[in-house]
Design goal:
Blueprint lengths: L1 E2 L1 H17 L3 H13 L3 H20 L9 E9 L3 E2 L5 H13 L11 E2 L6 E2 L7 E7 L4 E8 L1 H4 L3 E5 L5 H8 L11 E8 L2 H11 L6 H7 L4 H14 L14 E9 L6 E8 L5 E6 L26 E5 L5 H4 L7 E10 L2 H12 L14 E3 L24 H11 L3 E4 L5 H10 L2 E4 L5 H5 L2 E8 L8 E15 L6 H21 L1
Parallel strand pairs: 1-3, 2-6, 9-10, 13-14, 14-15, 15-16, 16-17
Antiparallel strand pairs: 2-7, 4-5, 7-12, 8-11, 9-11, 14-19, 17-19, 18-19
């Protein structure tokens, strides 16, 4: 069977575009079911934003998340397949990635950096992909691909357990150490057995499967792996971490496991989470042309209305005072309007280097009594002010927080997930605040941005410093001026509540 190069390349490109704006419908259904069951108001709000964002992206064909991921591809290539000459399989995949990420109607963010331990220079087209190939009997190519965001990928865990150790206990102990930077609710993928690197690959591949935990629960487990899936899901959800780490009933929507025979002395286990921007596709190339992916109907998305109403406090960023922010309480919902600056890891590092060297900051970069938004937006297309612009994981900025607060007069920060103790101590010391925007709702967030311009470090690409003008951008007070964190109080409250309700059910 001859597979034409163009069919292979275009199929990869089409699939990557497709998953950038279409959630798998099994995921949409699972989030909606969790939304309907959820009792925590904060977690329910977060899931409402995720579902609304998902529908908007399906309508507008724009990315679900501003982090459009590192591409991972699993190929099972039939041994009777023939390719046109001149390009390796890796070259074909990467040309498909390049074509997808540079598509003019839906530009995707280029996040891949070459020389990772050195200059970390952006490749500008999101290549190369991470590719796993296997030769199998047959005359077709089975393709599974995903675009994996850095926030969830960074929370991957690996352990070499003793054969007698409990995998469930290790997962239950480890998930809280991951924080909320992986943007729950999502899935956990586990690889068990083989060797260290085999377990990690198994964990990643397991996340390519559809959500089916409720069907499994109804029919009952048929083997030990299925028993583990149910045990782990129940134990993790009992932790009360909840959507976006705000505390609630649902932290994981499914647990996936793949295993492989291992050495008698070993029990390798890898765990990789998938975030609320779960993106993957599966198709087959058989020589008949470009793969066709099913176009979902908008009627497949639930109609969700989200109105914070009187609970929300409207804040003018251009006039807000330190006295005003001192009145904000953890868990409060705010609607932000006015101007803010943006900045991520590279910008923070460069800013502090300039300050340490006694250099003046670039014109237009004045943080005195202002807010910074941790974001790396997607480039705009057509009449957009900016592309999808959801928050990035705030903990990566923790080491910069104290010096920046001290040397610039910064008043507040906006990001996703929790802050570590280092940042919380600095926030408390300088009477600043940290606000949380919902990860996995990037297109929805971008709708609140009325104007955007680059003010410094244009060479950093998506990590350049922008000035955004926003109108009623929804956020939650995550750390107040006294250092109280909703990411600690919320899960603690819901873990106790879930345990109490379980005890009542058992009795």
């Amino acid at each position: 069977m001859l597979i034409r190069n163009e069919d292979f390349i275009q199929s990869v490109a089409d699939a990557l575009q497709y998953i950038s704006y279409y959630h798998p419908l099994d995921f949409v259904k699972a989030v909606h079911q969790a939304y309907e069951r959820e009792e925590s108001a904060a977690a329910k709000d977060a899931m409402a934003q995720i579902l609304i964002n998902s529908r908007l992206c399906a309508e507008g064909k724009r990315p679900i998340c501003q982090d459009t991921g590192i591409v991972t591809v699993f190929l099972k290539i039939g041994m009777d397949v023939q390719f046109e000459g001149g390009m390796s399989v890796s070259d074909l995949v990467n040309e498909g990635v390049r074509r997808a990420y540079l598509h003019p109607d839906n530009v995707l963010r280029a996040s891949i950096l070459a020389d990772p331990a050195g200059a970390r220079k952006n490749t500008r087209d999101n290549t190369p992909a991470v590719i796993h190939m296997e030769l199998v009997p047959g005359n077709s190519i089975d393709v599974k691909l995903a675009a994996k965001g850095g926030g969830s990928e960074n929370k991957a865990k690996m352990v070499m357990l003793n054969p007698s150790d409990s995998i469930v206990d290790w997962v239950e102990k480890t998930v809280p150490t991951m924080g909320a930077g992986w943007c729950p609710p999502g899935m956990l993928g586990l690889g068990i057995g083989g060797t260290a690197e085999k377990a990690a690959v198994l964990a990643k591949e397991s996340l390519m499967d559809p959500i089916d935990i409720h069907e499994l629960r109804q029919r009952g487990p048929a083997n030990r792996v299925e028993e583990l899936r149910l045990e782990i899901m129940d134990r993790v959800n009992a932790l009360g971490i909840g959507a976006q780490g705000l505390g609630g009933l649902t932290t994981v929507l499914d647990v996936k496991i793949m295993d492989y025979p291992t050495h008698a002395a070993s029990l390798p286990v890898a765990m990789i989470p998938n975030c609320a921007a779960t993106r993957h596709a599966h198709f087959t190339l058989d020589g008949s042309g470009v793969a066709e992916l099913p176009v979902p109907s908008l009627s497949d998305w639930p109609e969700i209305s989200w109105d914070v109403g009187p609970r929300a406090r409207k804040v003018n960023l251009d006039t807000v005072t330190r006295e005003e922010i001192a009145s904000w309480q953890p868990g409060d919902t705010l609607l932000l309007s006015g101007k803010m600056l943006t900045g991520r890891d590279a910008a923070h590092k460069r800013l502090l280097t300039m300050l340490d060297n006694g250099e003046a900051l670039p014109e237009g970069v004045n943080f005195k009594d202002r807010f910074i938004y941790y974001v790396g937006p997607v480039d705009p297309v057509r009449d957009e002010v900016i592309g999808p612009a959801g928050p990035t994981t705030a903990t990566r900025m923790d080491k910069f927080t104290g010096p920046l607060l001290e040397q610039t007069g910064l008043m507040g920060m906006i990001g996703k997930a929790e802050r570590g103790q280092l940042a919380i101590d600095a926030i408390k010391q300088h009477k600043a605040v940290y606000l949380m925007a919902v990860g996995g709702a990037a297109y929805l967030v971008s709708k609140a941005i009325r104007a955007a311009r680059v003010v410094a470090f244009e060479d950093l690409g998506m990590e350049a410093i922008h000035e955004f003008e926003v109108e009623e951008m929804p956020v939650t007070v995550a750390v107040d001026v006294n250092g109280s964190s909703v990411h600690r109080t919320g899960p603690e409250q819901w873990k106790a509540k879930i345990a109490e309700e379980h005890a009542i059910e058992v009795s």
